[in-house]
Design brief:
The structure is a single chain. Helix 8 links the parallel strand 5 (165-171) and strand 6 (200-204). The protein has a seven-stranded mixed sheet with strand order 2-8-7-6-5-3-4, sandwiched between helices. A three-stranded antiparallel sheet has the order 9-12-11. The chain starts with 6 loop residues before the first helix and ends with a helix. The chain has helices spanning 7-10, 15-28, 47-58, 71-85, 101-111, 126-135, 154-159, 183-193, 254-267, 273-284, 288-309, 336-347, 373-389, and strands at 34-35, 94-97, 117-122, 138-143, 165-171, 200-204, 230-235, 248-251, 324-325, 349-350, 352-353, 365-368. With 393 residues, the chain is of the alpha/beta class. The model has no long low-confidence stretch (mean pLDDT 96). The relative contact order is 0.17. The chain has two domains: 6-44 and 288-388, Aspartate Aminotransferase, domain 1 (Alpha-Beta Complex), CATH 3.90.1150; 63-284, Type I PLP-dependent aspartate aminotransferase-like (Major domain) (Aspartate Aminotransferase, domain 2, 3-Layer(aba) Sandwich), CATH 3.40.640. The protein has 13 helices and twelve strands. The structure holds pyridoxal-5'-phosphate (PLP). Pyridoxal-5'-phosphate (PLP) is lined by residues 39, 99-101, 125, 171, 175, 204, 206, 235, 237, 243, 248. Pyridoxal-5'-phosphate binds next to loops.
Length: 393
Amino acid sequence: MLKTIAAFDRIGEENAFAVLARANALAAQGRDIISLGIGQPDFRTPDFIVEAAVKALRDGHHGYTAANGILPLREAVAANLNKRYGVEVSPESVMIMPGGKPTMFMSILMFGEPGAEIMYPDPGFPIYRSMIEYTGATPVPVPIREENGFAFSAEETLKLITPKTRLIIVNSPANPTGGVTPKSEVDKLVAGLEKWPDVAIMSDEIYDHMVYDGEKHVCLLSYPSIRDRLILLNGWSKTYAMTGWRLGYAIFPGKLYDYARKLAVNLHSCVNASAQYAGLAALTGPQDEVVKMIAEFDKRRKVVVDGLNKLPGVSCITPKGAFYAFPNIKRTGWKAKELATTLLNETGVVTIGGPDFGILGEGYLRLSYANSTENILKALDRMGDFLSKKKAA
Ligand code: PLP
């Protein structure tokens, strides 16, 4: 028998990938599958970004780079944050990462150990809890409620802090709900955190470009009182349709930066060089394709919410960000995961059950509207037929 450490029995997963594999298997058998499952834009990476990567390879950028990333890219990230949010960021605090996930992985590793408490949103991105459990720290869920438009509540968050709290994870715009937390609530949270100077914050802002209805994204870097303990997670995956490139960035304050750099040296050495040049082109080149993509998501958002609200037993608030809808299915009588599985098997529509994002996800489904309007309408039709004919077991 191999003797491995217990932590690996505690590590979790992202069920969206398992559902994707099942949907692909069904499609391979000839089934007509419509995916509203996985969270990735259905657009291609803009051509000029792809060309920049090809050029980088042709120019001989095929070796290792510095572990923290190439300087022009770190400078471009700092300039971009300055331009978008008016915040001063030193390129020396920007770490280029192989995607968004490694930032949460590293941040949770830095603070998690038995006896420590780490707070995370529930429902929320499943990897937060998985990694907290891995470290042996106690996961403390912060409830994210439909009645708050799936924004986090500053009051509820602050109440859960104890002397054992080391790290608070926040995410707006949010996966899986599409919730956007208003500035007033972020202000309140930051004001309350002044009483807890030893608590670090990791703000996952990977969907920061995707806000609708005139909302403005609030970047936590704009709060000076928490800058020395704020980790920012962001990246190219969603904004530039680059999920498969594995390119992200983090802002790490103070000594955390060097911890992250050392982790990078131990783990991946550096991010793929050509991807870094592609990332540089993305930030410094024309943004019209991003604008177009987001306008298209906005249109589909209305289609998906209208359609969901017409389904028997389903209601859906209008999400203000990301590309997810999180309909309430409690009145259908179905348990969420059972409904998601049965929908896939019987109608070919891929959704994710809310409980895959935490206990408070029961009673909800997540639909990613990163699919064509035509397919979204077809999926809604199939769901409507199914729900009117088939009662919960
Ligand atoms: N954070 C959130 C909230 C996400 O939804 C995702 C991806 O779905 C990530 C981070 C990870 O992004 P990446 O694919 O760049 O690792």
